[in-house]
Amino acid sequence: MMTNEELSLKTKQSLAQVLKNTMEHKKLSKITISELCAVCRINRKTFYYHFEDIYSLLKWTLEQEAVEVVKNFDLLVNTEEALRFVMAYADENKHIINCAFDSMGYEEIKRFFYNDLFSVIYGAIEQVEDELQITVDSQFKNFLAAFYTEASAGLLIEWVKNRMTQDKETILQSLLSIYKISIPAILREKRIFN
């Protein structure tokens, strides 16, 4: 027998999956709570127990997707594998990202990618710091990771939204080249001398 918490999570996951499936062929603004409830075989009251509206369901769905993305890669793997995974996820789920972009805007979608990318980039910065056997102020490392994360998230969103002329592999290799060349140079410049 399922606990209330397990049942609640199952209901939310079911609604999220139906929303994702529906967004493949319908704009978010055209999706109704009634149609989601009908497919899930729940009543509207149950929907409103879990979510305020469709936008809160979409937001929860994106947050759960972000958790799954992180679970699927170890942050200690190399940066290329992690970025490749995030880009593959974005490519496979472009319909969700585009629907969310249209309804929630750029900032909300950027926030979805931000934490995952920040962790990957911060890990890369610390790895370079270790390889160079230097110490860099932690505030500066946070600043640098935030800088690269903003740029990377922006490029990723732009690529998904507008299907830039470059393919996924070209963008990935360009990002990796920028990281590989600039991060060591910047860290050498900002190292703390004891």
From TrEMBL:
InterPro entries cross-referenced by the UniProt entry: Homeodomain-like_sf, HTH-type_Tx_Regulator, TetR_C_Firmicutes
Top-level taxon of origin: Bacteria
Domain Transcriptional regulator TetR C-terminal Firmicutes type: 78-177
Gene3D superfamilies to which the protein is assigned, alphabetical: Tetracycline Repressor, domain 2
UniProt-listed PANTHER family: ACREF/ENVCD OPERON REPRESSOR-RELATED, TETR-FAMILY TRANSCRIPTIONAL REGULATOR
Protein name listed in UniProt: AcrR family transcriptional regulator
Source organism: Catenibacillus scindens
